[in-house]
């Protein structure tokens, strides 16, 4: 898909839910963002988050409600229900939620539960811990009353069986969002800031398609897939999680913003750092960052072209934008 900013169009919050996946829209000039999410499907998540924020006035409620949308969507093969399984056929989910009071909850390698983001929130609110994994996380979720849900859909199982025919030992890292292909990797990260400068964030994923059993990426790790810091801002990541984890990407971006960088400059700095550190090892990998500061200014930057993100302003208007990237597009 070629992204053309001149195809710009502004939508209301309600219209955002119905956005066709391939369209990209321009940011309303000068608008301060309330909620921003990774990828074009973030528009529907933002609409749900915005509606929840209007209802309860809570940013943490809002980012949780936003995360529910792709988690429940069987056509999204990289988050929640319908996510592609690991190499052995198990759908395992990772999620984290964080506010700006130092509260954080996360789960990783969680099976059989539809909304890992809500289990992460329970970890944050009901335990003295910040992170539960695997069978312990599953047991905790069931004890908390989350219903058991079969997450492997027939479509995802078929894709996995197809992959098994030529299975390579390591998960493949694609360079762009290729929805519907076996190479899909599109975590949703959501970061939000209200008019008073309060902040919250959530990140949820089924991880890399056909990953090794037990593999956990950046997404549920505080400071890697998500970071929120009071009076500074918040950042989230998508792409090959190992590359984000190596540099604690979201923490790095928040730290750069603390030192005075704009969200855009901070995201760019993190991508440049990965490119320099990893050289040819990230030639074909996608890594993308998205950040918001306490004034509601947004920035994004990716290693490869193709990364999009959804921005919802304080009035509920949503736009989908194409991020700038270090590597130029090879398409015309
Ligand atoms: N960052 C995620 C992971 O490595 C994948 C993604 O962004 O889709 O698990």
Structural class: alpha+beta
Percent of residues in helices comes to 25-40%
Instruction: Please name the fourth-level CATH homologous superfamily.
Output: (Glycosyl)asparaginase
Sum up the overall morphology in one term. globular
How are helices and strands ordered from N to C?
A: HEHHEEHEHHEEEEHHHEEEEE
The total count of strands amounts to 13
Question: What is CATH's topology name?
Answer: Glutamine Phosphoribosylpyrophosphate, subunit 1, domain 1
Q: Please report which band the strand proportion falls in: under 5%, 5-15%, 15-25%, 25-35%, 35-45% or over 45%.
A: 15-25%
The major β-sheet equals:
8 strands, mixed
* Count of structural domains: 1
Radius of gyration: 18 Å
| Overall pLDDT metric | 87
Total DSSP helices: 9
What structural keywords apply?
single chain; 332 residues; alpha+beta; Glutamine Phosphoribosylpyrophosphate, subunit 1, domain 1; 9 helices; 13 strands; disordered N terminus; binds aspartic acid
